[in-house]
Each structure stands twice: as C-alpha cells, then as structure tokens.
C-alpha cells in the first residue's frame, strides 16, 4: 500500500497563474544561487531534533510526544514555520569518496583494478539505510483528512492506495532477515501527518500501532534503530521564504504547506532528509515491497562501484510534455520526468526502473533536486497522485529522475574530461590539429570523414573482475559462492568503468564533420553540443569508440595527462554546475585529479537479481502467484500490489489471504512489536 493524496483545488485555480509566475521566479533565483557556488548552510530544524550516535546503535532524539486520538496513538509536534524549513542549496560531497586518496582513486578510475597504490587504502563497507514510505489509510484521522480533500478537490483516488494489510510489519521483518548482519545502518519510516483536531498549531504524525516506540530508537540485536519522519518536516522551501509565504491559498496557508500524502509528493522530499541522520546511501522501499533473502551491502552499493541500479531495458520511457499520459498508475509522472530530463540532458528514451527496492545516493538525489528545482517545487503541491495534468505542475517521479540523473551526469563527466580537460586544456580551444588527434584516438583516419561501422567494445567488467576487486579491497561481493537459496544473488551487468552504456542502438557510422567539426572553437561549446545539444548521438558514439580503442580496462583514455600536485584544493567546486552555463567555468588547478573525482562521484552499476511483482486482483490468481513465489527458492525481491476490487465484500477474503501469507512468509517478529 502506498501513498496517494495530491492537490488540485478548483477554488485555487484563480491563483494558479500568479503561483506559476512566483515559482518560476523562485526557480530562477535558486538556479542562479547554485551557479554562483554560494551554498547555503544546512539550517537545523527547531522542531524534532534527530541525531545518530557515532556507532549508529541508537537514535538520540527528544522523546516522541505520544498522544491519543480516537483510540489511536500519534506523535504530536508543532506545525513548522517557513523560517524552519529553508532548504540546503549546497552541493554535498560524498564522504566515502573523500576518504580515498587521490593516488588510489586515480589508479582505480584509470585501470579499474584495485591494486598498486590502493593496496594500502582502507575502505569500509557502505553504510546503507533503508527508507520506507508508509500510510495507514484505515487511520480515522487520515480517513477524515482524505475525505475532506476528496470533497475539496472532486478527485477520487483508488482506495487501494490507502488500504492497510499490515504490510509495513512484514516489510520490516523481511529487512531484518535480509540485512540483519549489516552494521551501522538505520531504518527510516516516512509517515504522513494530519492536523490535531484539538489544536490547529499541532500536527499528529501517524505511527504503526503495533510498534513499541519506547525501544524503536535503539539497536536491539540485529534490528537497526528506527527513525520516524513526518512529511511536514521534509517540505523544504527555497531561500526566499517570504515570497513563498505570500502565496496564500483560500485557507490562509502558504500553498506549499497544504499537506499532500501522494507518494510522488513524498518521495520528491527524500532529498531533504537530514544528512546528519540518514546515511549517504539509501534503499527506497514501499511498504508492500519485501527483501526475501539475505543480501550483502554490495547488492545495493559499494564505495568502489557506487549505487546498484536495476532497470528493465525492455520497457522504454519516452518524454511527454503534454501531461496526457495515463494517470491511474505512474506513467504520467514517468513521461513528464523523462521530458524534464530531456530538457536538461537531451532527448532520448530511458529504461524503466524495476519496481522493487531501489538503491539511491542521498547526496546525488539532493543534487538532482537542485538541477530540477522548479519541477521538484511543483510536485508537493499535489494532494492526490496523478491529479495535475497541466504542465509544469505535473509530478516528478523522484526514483526515475534520481537514477537517470546519475547516469547522465556520469556521461557528462566523461565528455567533459575528454573534450574540455584533455583536449581543450588551459587555452580551452579545439584547433583543427587537435581535432585530427581526437579523431585518430576515436579510431578514425585523418584522410577519412567517416568511421564505418561504429564498433561496440567487448571489453567489459566481468563477474570475476568485480569479485576480485571487492575482495582485494576487503569488501563483500554482490553474489556469493554459497547456495543461491541462502544468499540473494546479484549479477552486475554493467559498471560505469565500462564507459557509457548506450541504451538501445548506435548509428552504423559517424562523421567527423558532424561530431567534431573542422574549425577552431571553444572546447566548452563542443562539449555542450555533445553532452546535451543536437549532436547527442555523436556524444554516445564518441564515448563508445574511445572505450573500444582503449587498451585499458578502466577509463584512462578519457582523462587528461597527469600533473602535479595531484591534490584537489579544498576550495574548488565539487562538481560541474548542475545547470551547465553557456560560458565555461575555470579549469581546475589539477584537471586530471579533479576529473577523476568528478567521474567517480557518479559511478554506478546496473544489475539483475531474481525479482517478482504481482497485484492481488482475485483470490484464485493471488493463490497461484503465492504458490509460485514459495516454489522459487532463489527469489531476492518481492512486491505485492493491492489491486483488489473496490467492493468491500470482495476485499475481505483477499485481505485475510494477504495478511496470512505475510505472516507465514515472514514469521519472525521484531523485538519492538507490541502485538499482532
């Protein structure tokens, strides 16, 4: 069961045009702020303070203010003010990368082998937190709030988005079984909050009624500490909070504070999770998603290879700038999000992200929210998922956006390193003579304008290579030599050390004149054209041909020559501007060292693991699926959607079947369970 509320109040339509203008102004201000590289500090909330102790064995926070309403327990907290919710607009470094020496990182990125200067380098297993989104649609106050929103907007979301089948308990049990041997991780549950009927200045955060909140903050045995986050403290604003506060709705609230419980509106706020509380690496999980077998950290993330993305390359997502895609599921948000990515990185189809537990980097999610700030700002204005069909208020799909943002930024980093840093150099100019050398490096001949055919490299990272590198670094591998019935299997199908993964096809030939030109020009201009301009396909082909001609298993061919000192000065930017300007930023002091760190910042893996997804539509079909799942002893990921009919009589038997199945599938209770 997932979130489902959004906002499209007909009474607010008269303020829509001023709102769009105001949000556009804010977006421009935020973008300029980021481009000036003057990051705001993280503003601590004056509401609930959270902090993890260094060992992450407990969450240090003030005691939850538990109150009772209509026989249910809630966490009561004061309604936040605009000044408490100022968003952090600084680019965040990745701490695990900072711990690796420049010498080791250069060797690793260049050669894709963990030896030489890396033999003395200590790296630790990635700390990976799990983040759930959850709502109890059967909660009486939530039902009242939802009913009010339905009456207010005239929109009737499917009840399936809110029904409760005790999925969260089973999902947490599955996580204990799958990740109990991990250390220093924490679990985070993001829940909606509703207005306190007795005090309009207080919000009531929903809590699972079976959880003993007196012990959830502590690590007990293998169970990670549990942190509850409520939506009201994630809705961050831009720096001009005064302007935002003027955008009042008919209720007198800033429109951005009118609560949404839609899953897209919640997920878009993941980037605002406090980095002092949530680890750099997260797994995003809906409460109807389950981890079936024990999994090593490298199945989701490693400091060598980055986050592990599971994509369905057979399902293409294309951009939609009209808002006309089907809104009953997630395709409206997917089409719009692909369009938003097209606007920034160039137009292409992108593969669908498998609908199960998803690996993400919190610093890079935050960076993506800065790059697409205006679109991220519109998304929380929706009360119910899929209500807004009028651009630019269509919702962003954060999981899709964040995943493909990393892939696109890695492609961008490779092109910048080769075109600007390696060949543009200090003078920043690509002369005809330099272009001759670039063409030859790609595999072309000076006297010929065409490379025909375009060849795709067969030099790829192998399973044995991944295993050896991780073992040499003292890390667990994503798969195990043990039985696949005892350890979930993950196979890396592509690593970013293999260059850029062309999603479907390349042109049969490429032209030098088309892809490089023949006259002198700024390297930055050619980079922009290949990275996000009209010659996007040329950029793909160049990256592919370079990897094909390279003798190295790493990315050395894309890098500028070594220079000294190797260190990257602390005052230099962490990355390229999130929105690329027309004029080039200054070349870093040590272009190679900076390029190495830039490329590694966006490292990632694509992988496959045994996974199942089905929706409960009727008893007979559900039993058949459940029988098949139980027969599969190697299944690692499971998602069971509530697709039950709306008639209550038909639901009752299916609800009992689902609950009983979860009890049997994940029978070991958590220490913090009060009752069943």
UniProtKB/TrEMBL annotation:
Domain Stealth protein CR1 conserved region: 128-146
Pfam families: Stealth_CR1
UniProt keyword list: Transferase
GO molecular function, one term: UDP-N-acetylglucosamine-lysosomal-enzyme N-acetylglucosaminephosphotransferase activity
GO biological process: carbohydrate phosphorylation
Cellular component terms (Gene Ontology): Golgi apparatus
Transferase among keywords: yes
InterPro entries: Stealth, Stealth_CR1
UniProt-recorded name of the protein: Stealth protein CR1 conserved region 1 domain-containing protein
Source organism of this protein record: Cylindrobasidium torrendii FP15055 ss-10
């Amino acid at each position: 069961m997932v979130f489902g509320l959004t906002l499209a109040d007909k009474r607010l339509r008269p303020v829509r045009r001023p709102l769009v203008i105001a949000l556009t102004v804010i977006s421009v201000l935020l973008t300029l702020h980021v481009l000036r590289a003057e990051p705001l500090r993280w503003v601590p909330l004056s509401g609930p303070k959270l902090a993890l102790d260094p060992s992450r064995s407990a969450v240090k926070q003030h005691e939850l203010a538990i109150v009772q309403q209509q026989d249910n327990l809630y966490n009561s907290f004061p309604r936040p003010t605009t000044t408490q919710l100022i968003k952090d607009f600084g680019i965040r470094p990745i701490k695990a990368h900072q711990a690796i020496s420049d010498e080791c990182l250069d060797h690793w990125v260049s050669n894709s082998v963990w030896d030489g200067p890396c033999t003395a380098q200590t790296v630790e297993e990635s700390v990976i937190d799990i983040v759930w989104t959850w709502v109890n649609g059967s909660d009486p106050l939530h039902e009242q709030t939802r009913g009010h929103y339905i009456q207010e907007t005239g929109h009737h979301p499917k009840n399936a988005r809110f029904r409760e089948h005790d999925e969260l308990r089973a999902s947490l049990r599955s996580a204990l079984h799958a990740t109990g041997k991990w250390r220093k991780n924490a679990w985070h549950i993001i829940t909606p909050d509703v207005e306190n009927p007795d005090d309009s200045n207080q919000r009531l955060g929903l809590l699972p009624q079976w959880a003993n909140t007196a012990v959830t903050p502590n690590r007990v045995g293998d169970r990670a500490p549990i942190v509850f986050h409520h939506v009201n403290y994630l809705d961050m604003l831009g720096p001009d909070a005064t302007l935002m506060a003027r955008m009042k709705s008919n209720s007198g609230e800033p429109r951005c504070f009118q609560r949404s419980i839609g899953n897209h509106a919640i997920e878009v706020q993941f980037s605002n999770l406090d980095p002092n509380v949530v680890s750099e690496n997260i797994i995003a999980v809906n409460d109807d998603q389950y981890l079936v077998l024990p999994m090593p950290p490298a199945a989701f993330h490693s400091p060598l290879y980055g986050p592990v993305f599971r994509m369905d390359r057979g399902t293409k997502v294309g951009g939609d700038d009209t808002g006309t895609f089907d809104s009953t599921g997630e395709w409206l948000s997917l089409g719009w999000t692909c369009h938003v990515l097209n606007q920034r990185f160039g137009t292409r189809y992108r593969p669908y992200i498998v609908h199960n537990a998803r690996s993400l980097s919190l610093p890079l999610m935050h960076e993506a929210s800065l790059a697409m700030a205006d679109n991220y700002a519109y998304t929380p204005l929706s009360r119910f998922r899929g209500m807004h069909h009028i651009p630019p208020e269509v919702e962003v799909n954060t999981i899709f956006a964040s995943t493909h943002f990393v892939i696109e930024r890695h492609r961008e980093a490779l092109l910048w390193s080769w075109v600007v840093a390696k060949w543009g150099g200090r003078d920043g100019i690509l002369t005809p003579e330099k272009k001759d050398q670039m063409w030859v490096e790609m595999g072309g001949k000076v006297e010929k304008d065409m490379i025909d055919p375009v060849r795709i490299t067969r030099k790829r990272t192998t399973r044995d290579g991944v295993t050896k590198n991780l073992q040499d670094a003292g890390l667990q591998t994503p798969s195990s030599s043990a039985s696949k019935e005892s350890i979930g299997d993950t196979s890396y199908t592509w690593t970013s050390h293999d260059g850029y993964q062309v999603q479907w096809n390349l042109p049969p030939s490429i032209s030098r004149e088309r892809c490089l030109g023949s006259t002198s020009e700024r390297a930055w201009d050619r980079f922009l054209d290949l990275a996000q301009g009209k010659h996007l396909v040329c950029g793909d082909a160049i990256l592919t041909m370079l990897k094909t001609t390279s003798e190295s298993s790493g990315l050395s061919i894309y890098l500028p020559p070594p220079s000294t000192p190797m260190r990257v000065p602390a005052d230099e930017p962490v990355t390229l501007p999130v929105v690329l300007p027309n004029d080039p930023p200054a070349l870093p002091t040590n272009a190679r060292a900076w390029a190495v760190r830039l490329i590694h910042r966006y490292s990632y893996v694509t992988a496959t693991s045994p996974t199942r997804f089905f929706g409960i539509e009727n008893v007979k079909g559900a039993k058949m699926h459940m029988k098949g799942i139980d027969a599969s002893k190697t299944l690692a990921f499971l998602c069971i959607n509530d697709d039950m009919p709306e008639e209550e009589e038909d639901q009752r038997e299916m609800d009992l079947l689902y609950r009983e199945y979860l009890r049997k599938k994940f029978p070991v209770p958590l220490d913090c369970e009060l009752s069943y």
